[in-house]
TrEMBL record:
Top enzyme category: transferase
Transmembrane regions: none
Listed GO MF terms: ubiquitin protein ligase activity; zinc ion binding
Protein name: E3 ubiquitin-protein ligase TRIM9
All residue ranges annotated as the COS domain in the record: 390-448
């Protein structure tokens, strides 16, 4: 019950609701708090003047949904819901909800004390605006003021029961001295009994056997609930609610149906709709209850992971110390002091990495525990509140809030969607020490005069017919000379950094073919191979010069996405080939589990209402790259985001929320740029079904630019782009996109580049 307490507190004053009223947005406020946050509006904004001009009260409810997040139009500084509302700085309530201070009272008018004037402090000024502190929707009050809002009697009943449950325990009514705590209450006798008095005065036999015994708390509630409260109409105070308007989703009276605004609406019996909505809320709670149970088990799993991570840390440290001690004992102290010093320095670096990994794992798991605990507390509180609401026997009061509660329950259940109850970190340490190359060098340490040159393997020959490359991957093949009689134990493939730097080993093994992934686009690499056996290492093969995919291509050539074979060698000692432009698709291996792939991984959508991230298969660090995404489906005006990201970007939030992504998110009317949750450059113009979003990553100028339907959207989005970036998209179940790659640079960009030149 304690976790439900936040559901019972006013977002303005932070205390339990007192005389709560229901706003049209389904949120509740204390009557006194609503009176305090009323804002005076000009006469031109009065209900009478708007009716005369044909403007509806509800036109002011369609607010700019993204203005709450925009830098240029944040809505937090002075938000009134319409242009002419007075702008006043917002402040925070005890619950942390942003609210607006009360409007300045009008100057006193002396010698005017009519009865209408005396009512104003109770119902608010005639021309007043009330802004919900939770959803920021605004409403102009009519001539009834705050009396036009229905009272939330169900919420009052739940609060009363909650406060009674925390009060002192009920006492037996039949104990003569020092009444004991009651254990049951007889519904027919209307008496609370302790266990001895029940056995003595209310035996479970004879005429009292048919009496119904209840727990004390339930008996107290039963006393309070009988007789049922009578609900009256807010428009016709002398009439009781008798029907339910399906269109307006509210209880109505007989007079509303005869002469009010509900006369032409579809109505149903109040009792039938009460039972139907109770059933719907109960069914929705079943699914949410399962999620809460899974969350509790998940929290236990996460807490066990913290202990396992700490155990693994100590075990890994001991293992590394033993391995290092074996290496120290195997070396000749007189000849290997320098190697031992270098190894010690490297050991410190490796142990530092292990400690960092340990701290990172603990932080991720603890953050997930904290996040999951808060969400579970909110879920449990909502469940307990809903269960208390279901106990109410006031149909009209229940139906006033049932729709909003059902929506909240479904929304909360969706938030426990797939992936939420999955650990973001495993307990195992993946930092396996790769000591094989070092051990091989140690085993090869020997006296120089013992080597026999004739027993060293011959240099390998590159097998050009089987060498090929695709995008930023290269496959190399080699073989031993046919006349070689020396036994070979393995091969070492070396590759430079793509800038003519030092060679590094990328493969050691017995195989004669190797595929190297993750190369830079539009880069030239040098590769070479050598063979080895127990005697020693051979000379290097011829150096192979290879170039990865170009950033862009000109003209209307049809480029095949198949791997391209190597071209002829340029010199006796060097061989080279050039790859065509980069073609790529989305990467299922790095995507969020909610992402759905089709069309050979070129088309993606999502099965969640939350934003999920998917990356492209290819990463870029050089050149100029342009790709487009067509909007295949666009329902309910969502906000998909398009851009680039690091490989470690968060996959369960909108693209651009963290510092690992640079994106443009867009709806049907406008777009924003976002990086590290900072929103900039709001630009008019949105997307619809069939629209095309272009992304242009230019490493020569280190910029990222966006376009919609082949026209640049806003200024240059981001500058100083350096490093390795992957194409990225975030979307929910209302959006489906298809990616198109290998495209020429758009005309708007080439013309701008020529002007700058």
């Amino acid at each position: 019950m304690e976790e439900m307490e936040e559901e019972l507190k006013c977002p303005v004053c932070g205390s339990f609701y007192r005389e709560p009223i229901i706003l049209p947005c389904s949120h509740s406020l204390c009557l006194s708090c609503a009176r305090n946050i009323l804002v005076q509006t000009p006469d031109s904004e009065s209900p009478q003047s708007r009716r005369a001009s044909g403007v509806s009260d509800y036109d002011y409810l369609d607010l700019d949904k993204m203005s709450l997040y925009s830098e240029a139009d944040s809505g937090y500084g002075s938000y009134g819901g319409f242009a002419s509302a007075p702008t006043t700085p917002c402040q925070k309530s005890p619950n942390g909800v942003r609210v607006f201070p009360p409007a300045m009272p009008p100057p006193q008018q002396p010698h005017h004390h009519s009865s209408a004037a005396l009512l104003l402090p109770m119902i608010g000024p005639r021309n007043s605006c009330l802004t919900c502190p939770q959803c920021h929707r605004s409403l102009i009050l009519d001539e009834r003021g705050l009396r036009g809002f229905a009272k939330n009697r169900v919420l009052e009943g739940v609060i009363e029961r909650y406060q009674q449950s925390k009060a002192a325990a009920l006492r037996c009514q039949l104990c003569e001295k020092s009444p004991k705590e009651a254990t049951v209450m007889c519904e027919q006798c209307d008496v609370f009994y302790c266990e001895p008095c029940r056995l003595r005065c209310h035996p479970p036999r004879g005429p009292l056997a048919k009496h119904r015994l209840l727990p004390p708390a339930q008996g107290r509630v039963s006393r309070r609930l009988s007789p049922r409260k009578i609900s009256t109409c807010t428009d016709h105070e002398l009439e009781n609610h008798s029907m339910y308007c399906v269109q307006c989703k509210m209880p109505v009276c007989y007079q509303c149906l005869e002469e009010g605004k509900h006369s032409s609406h579809e109505v149903k019996a109040l009792g039938a709709m009460w039972k139907l909505h109770k059933s719907q809320l109960s069914q929705a709670l079943n699914g949410l209850s399962d999620r809460a149970k899974e969350a509790k088990e998940f929290l236990v799993q996460l807490r066990n992971m913290v202990q396992q991570i700490q155990v693994h840390l100590s075990a890994d440290k001991d293992t590394k110390q033993k391995e290092n001690s074996v290496e120290f004992e195997a070396c000749l102290v007189a000849q290997c002091d320098a190697l031992i010093d270098a190894l010690n320095r490297r050991k410190v670096q490796l142990l530092s990495r292990v400690n960092k990994e340990h701290e990172h794992k603990l932080k991720v798991v603890r953050d997930q525990i904290s996040h999951c605990t808060v969400k579970l507390r909110q879920t449990t509180g909502l469940m307990e509140y809903c269960l208390e609401v279901i106990k109410e026997n006031d149909p009209s009061g229940f139906l006033q809030i049932s729709d909003a509660l059902i929506r909240r329950v479904h929304l909360t259940e969706d938030q426990w969607g797939k992936g939420t109850l999955t650990p973001r970190m495993n307990t195992d340490f993946d930092l396996n020490l790769d000591s094989a190359p070092l051990l091989q060098s140690i085993h090869q340490l020997d006296f120089v005069q013992m080597k026999v040159p004739s027993l060293v393997p011959a240099p390998p020959l590159l097998h050009l017919e089987e060498c090929c490359n695709h995008n930023n991957s290269a496959t190399l093949s080699w073989k031993q000379p046919s006349m070689s009689m020396v036994q070979t134990e393995g091969y070492i493939l070396e590759l430079d950094d793509g800038n003519g730097g030092q060679f590094r080993e990328v493969f050691v093994g017995k195989e004669t073919m190797c595929t190297v992934d993750g190369l830079h686009f539009n880069s030239t690499y040098s590769a070479r191979v050598k063979a080895f056996n127990k005697t020693g290492v051979s000379l290097y093969s011829k150096t192979l010069i290879l170039q990865t995919s170009e950033a862009t291509f000109a003209g209307g050539l049809q480029i095949d996405a198949m791997p391209s074979p190597l071209e002829f060698l340029q010199s006796p000692d060097q061989e080279s080939f050039v790859s065509p432009v980069a073609w790529f698709a989305f990467n299922p291996g790095s995507a969020h589990p909610d992402i759905i792939f089709s069309n050979d991984n070129l088309t993606v959508t999502c099965n969640s209402y939350d934003d999920r991230v998917v990356l492209g298969k290819s990463g870029f660090s050089k050149g100029v790259h342009y790709w487009e995404l067509t909007i295949d489906r666009y329902d309910n005006h969502p906000d998909p985001a398009f851009g680039v990201a690091r490989v470690e970007v968060m996959k369960d939030v909108m693209l651009g929320k963290d510092d690992k992504a640079w994106a443009m998110y867009v709806d049907n009317n406008r777009s924003w740029f976002m990086h590290n949750n900072s929103h900039t450059n709001r630009t008019e113009g949105g997307i619809t079904k069939g629209a095309t979003v272009g992304v242009l990553l230019d490493f020569t100028r280190r910029t990222l630019t966006f376009s919609i339907n082949e026209e640049q959207q806003g200024p240059v989005a981001f500058e100083n782009m350096e490093g390795l970036f992957f194409p990225a998209v975030s979307l929910n179940r209302n959006v489906q996109v298809t990616i198109h790659t290998g495209l020429p640079v758009p005309e708007f960009y080439t013309s701008r580049a020529s002007l700058q030149a």
